[in-house]
Amino acid sequence: MVKKVNLIHPRNQITTIIDRIYKRGMTTTSGGNISIIDNNGDIWVTPSAIDKGSLRASDIICVKKNGTIIGKHKPSSEFPFHKAIYEARPDIKSVIHAHPPALVSFSIVRQIPNTNIISQAKHICGPIGYAKYRLPGSNDLGTVIADEFNKGYKAVIMENHGVVLGGSDLTDAYERFEALEFCASTILYGTQIGTPKYLTDKQINEFEAQATGVLPEMDSTEYQSDEVEKRREICKIVQRACQQGLMIGSYGTVSMRWKNNNFLITPTAVNRWNLDLDDIVQIKDGKREAKKTPSRATWIHQEIYNRNPNVNSIIMTQSPYLMAFGVTGKYLNVRTIPESWIFLQDINVVKYGNHFRKNNNSEMVENCSTALIIENDSVIITGDKLLQTFDYLEVAEFSAKSIVLGNSLGNMVPINDDQVEDLRKKFLS
């Protein structure tokens, strides 16, 4: 996928996204389907009973506006509800249906995930609809789903079935799908260790009202070879984080110190899966690269670099197991295995809202810890080399996952003080 999605053939768009969904473990070999309606009213859709792990562009079916089917396979058995959605909502140009585990958990207990669990999800997902169970592949199923979309929803939980989402294009639909599954996962993991807490609409509105691009623009920008190489590093790490489920397309900020306190940072309003070198924003002498809007968290990164000369890279992201601690306020004790404590030591939690109030940020930017969780928002990881910082993120997420999963077995028994002191002497002295 690239940003100019309209220049990519629907067949290629669909195969890219279904491959991404399958590799992320959000659907099975036989499950799920994707469609795009083009400007002619023709619908491009995944085929029925073809391996989702090896789909090629030539496998995608085109159902012409007059009903003629073009392709070597049958269209998805769920094609009727795709067609019904497009007829009900001309503004929707792409539909995703899948059976991601967390959302199916909500589907089978007949609940709707509360997207106020994290800051940006309500804005991305919108209100969530609920469609009663009907026979898969039936026109009746198409009717009940279309009825929900007619109410203005772009995301609908399907009772005892899964989820269906629409978007202005396939990137928009996938962002909604990914964000909703992330919310569901975070809520589920949070309930394993405590009680999830939700943001109020007022708090979310304050988050959305944050100023963007407040730094003045540079008159001109120099692109030196070492600067270009750092852009490449950022893009590679962002892609890797997305592939491993440590970042979602609609949220995540990565930066690298370039020279002195000047740095490079990811932009706002650009899908992280599609990030390219040209998207990265240079921040120099308190000014931003012209005609680009850096992340809304730019000021946090700037203050961390200004006050912490040993920090040369920062990752600010949402990963599901770390955010389970972020939404419950439970203490993440990383005395799980030696590596976790050596790399991370202590992970503190900052109250939601402090990350965009510049006058109340000492906890975040002074004596900056390796890892810090912001309630209902994100985790900040700092380090020297960017790959090292990414490693710290992986270790933190693995540690959080081990605690969440282990909680069903019994109480965690951490490494004791004497063992920690031995680690301190050998590895940190």
Automatic annotation (TrEMBL):
SUPFAM superfamilies for this protein: AraD/HMP-PK domain-like
InterPro entries: Aldolase_class_II_sugar_metab, Aldolase_II/adducin_N, Aldolase_II/adducin_N_sf
Metal-binding among keywords: yes
Cellular component annotations (GO), alphabetically ordered: cytosol
Entry's transmembrane regions: none
GO molecular function per UniProt: aldehyde-lyase activity; metal ion binding
GO BP field: pentose catabolic process
Protein name as annotated: Aldolase
One Pfam entry name: Aldolase_II
Record domain Class II aldolase/adducin N-terminal: where: 12-188, 232-404
UniProt entry keywords in alphabetical sequence: Lyase, Metal-binding
